[in-house]
Amino acid sequence: MAQAEKAMPFRGSKLNRTPEINAGALATRTVNSLPLRRADFACLADALDYAALGDTGANFYSGRGKLAAVLPYRALREKALVLARRLLSLSLERGARVAIVAETNPDFLRFFFACQYAGLVPVALPAAVNLGGHDAYVVRLRGLLLGCGASAAMASTQFHRFLREAAEGVDLAFVGTPAAFDELPERDVSLKRSGPAETAYLQYTSGSTSFPRGVVIKQEAVMSNLFGVVNHSLDVQPDDRCVSWLPFYHDMGLVGCMLAPMATQRSIDYIDTRDFAMRPRRWLELMTSTRASISFSPPFGYDLCARRIRSEDVGRYDLSAWRIAGIGAEPIRAELPDRFAKLLAPAGFNPRAFVPCYGMAESSLAISFSPVRQGVIVDWIDADYLAEHLRAIPAGPKTGRVNGFVRCGAPLPGHEVAIRDDQGNALPDLHVGRIKVRGPSVMSGYFAQPEQTRQALSPDGWLDTGDIGYRVDGSVVVTGRHKDMIIINGRNIWPQDIEHIAERQPGLRPMDASAFFVLGQDDEEVAVVVVQCNISDAAECHQLTQTLHREIQGELGITCLIELVPRHTLPRTSSGKLSRAAAREDYLRRREQERLGAQASTDRISYFEQRDRTAALGR
Amino acid sequence: MLEYPEILATLSAELKSSTQGRVPITEDTDLLSELNLDSLQVMNLLLHVEDHFDISIPVSILAGVKTVRDLAQQIEKLGHKG
User: Which of A92, A390, A415, A547 could connect to A96 by a Cys-Cys bridge, CB 3.0–4.6 Å?
Assistant: First the structure.
């Protein structure tokens, strides 16, 4: 399949106008006329060539639930081939990066696959801007453009003004809207697709926004991951259909919910991420109306949905076709799947549809998957014993504190997972240590960051996931994650980004801020930043707090509790660095003292009800 | 056509109820530093506005919004375009 395409005759521009919305168009069908092939292709372009022979494709829905655009794989391939020639008119070198502000629309797929056919490397950039976040978003986009050395960049009319601003002074061959790209001439060349040993795409990790890292994924890596996921893990069937609201700049959204359906010739129905955040019940309505069988979400999505469903709504849903409810990408609170399943049982949701999984962009997507039709298995572990001895023993009737951890299944075939102690020694089952993974899905490295790459990837191919966990019965269990990371509404927030915002304020210096999370009323994570300063004037304090609220919201899209303390309050380690863990303990102690001192303003205090899980995370 | 006074009144009412009247809402109220709305609260606010006026608010217009007035003006502009 991997031969070069013949140069195609010039096509009328009418054909290339996107997004193409046909009034009264129907969504692509579920059952394909084409025999199912489960991702056994050498590269993504080969996979699309095959999918284009059938009748399935991607469908895009508006916030109000109307079908807004239909993109059969057949049309996607045709459009991508035309656009590939237009991109090549820019004389980009092979493997050049094409940055795409990744909204959930047909243009993202068209540009992504044009790159595949042209031998270019697509890079999805976030299409998410916060209230008052103009400047912060522009700075972030600029960092991402520079970080991947982009040669061309695309954004829709909606996002183009930010992109244009971000690209000022950056050396790019072309920046434009899809319509502007469609004005480029088609270069009359035979296309040479991105082959197995070439880079398939660059994926920015959900890491720090100040220090972005682009994961380099080769065709053979992503194809190996897709093959493992759709055969071994999901056992994709000819009548499967998918629904997704995950953004394409997220690994689960891109690989799990765009590439996997395409590589198995499945139809998928998309809702925009913002529309989901606004109207989470749309997810279940779409699952009902399309009779979809596969949908993935981080725990955050199930939680948001469960909170918004009214009991009188449940009867309107029919989720009996939902056979795989993937759940992963962040720690899974043990009680959540059960709560969701109970709530939706009257709608035919099967609790055994839950498929807990574990993965990360550095491993293309998936590392391990629970078996389908098994449901969620929770290990109830003695939390104190775990914290003290780094060993998972089952909780008994006399156990004081209990932690529930969800088993995330066995590694994909051909992949090894090892648990190592700090000295790098392999640990037996039930011992908690660093989770390392090795296998064909692992990234080649971080783009243009040899030092970061060396830290993450050993010479013999082991990826340090940064997560902590143990093995049991062949399953991987994640008990903790990247040290210090904060997760709010499903997004990873890095403490250094919050600290950075504080420390750049006038009168403040580096090491004047320490950020971490505490658990809120419903056990959700709440970001806290403790700032040390010499301000005693109440008005000035108020001013600083307001500025911090505004800038943290604008840049990171979260609210953050802010505590101002006198200089020299923040604890340091023996090497003189700030210790976030110690700052957090001090903070919680102060709140505890406040609570004991004055039993007033109860609701605020109960916010800090201490349920300290750090110890149990093995930190 | 959306009228500014009506937009303002809707926004104010919605903000008053979501902040339980803790902060007085005026046109100059800063949505971030004074009301401290997080991204899900912003989504909720937009949801109510969209449903009330039967419009669709593109996320990109939020980038330049700081005060209640900014938001009301952006929504007013959408009405003119529609």
Answer: A92
Nearest CA in chain A to B49: A278
The token duo for B37 is: 């709305």
A 10 A CB-CB count for A5 gives 17
Domain boundary among A234, A253, A279: A279
Indicate whether A6 belongs to any domain.
Answer: no
> Are residues B63 and A162, on separate chains, in Cβ contact within 8 Å?
yes
pLDDT at site A13: 33
Would you call A129 and B60 a contact, using CB atoms and an 8 Å cutoff?
yes
Closest CA to A60 of A156, A179, A176, A182: A156
CA-wise closest residue to A486 among A434, A529, A437: A529
Residue A256's nearest CA partner among A230, A291, A285 is A230
Q: What is the pLDDT of residues B43-80, one digit of tens each?
A: 889 888 888 888 888 888 889 999 999 999 999 988 76
DSSP A426: B
- Best mutation target among A137, A139, A278 (most B Cβ atoms within 10 Å) is A278
Last residue of a domain, one of A429, A449, A482: A482
Instruction: State how many domains chain A has.
Output: 3
Shortest distance between the Cα of A298 and any Cα of chain B, in A, equals 16
pLDDT band for position A574 (50/70/90)?
low
Please report, for the domain that includes residue A53, its CATH number: 3.40.50.12780
Judged against a pLDDT cut of 50, whether residue A10 lies above it is answered with: no
Contact residues on chain B for A279, CB-CB shorter than 8 A? 47
CATH superfamily placement of domain B4-81? ACP-like (1.10.1200.10)
- Regarding whether A550 and A416 lie in a shared domain, the answer is no
**How near does any CA of chain B get to the CA of A547, in Å?**
6
CB contact under 8 A, B32 and A279: no
Burial of A464 (0-12, 13-18, 19+ CB in 10 A): middle
Taking only the tens place, the pLDDT of each residue in A222-245 is 999 999 999 999 999 999 999 999
> Is A433 in contact with A472 (CB distance < 8 Å)?
no
Q: Which residue of A has its CA nearest to B46?
A: A278
Predicted pLDDT at A22: 44
A520, A494: one domain: yes
Domain ranges of chain B: 4-81
- What is the ipTM for the molecules in this complex? 0.91
Of the ranges A474-488, A505-519, A593-607, which one carries the lowest mean pLDDT score?
Answer: A593-607
Quick count: other Cβ atoms within 10 Å of Cβ A139?
16
Q: Enumerate the residues of chain A whose CB falls inside 8 A of the CB of residue B20.
A: none
Same domain, A329 and A445: yes
Residue A6 in this model has a pLDDT that exceeds 80: no
Note down the domain range covering A393. Answer: 280-482
Rounded to a whole number, what is the distance in Å from the CA of B8 to chain A's nearest CA? 17
**A113 in B contact zone (CB under 8 Å):** no
* Gap from A293 CA to chain B (nearest CA, Å): 28
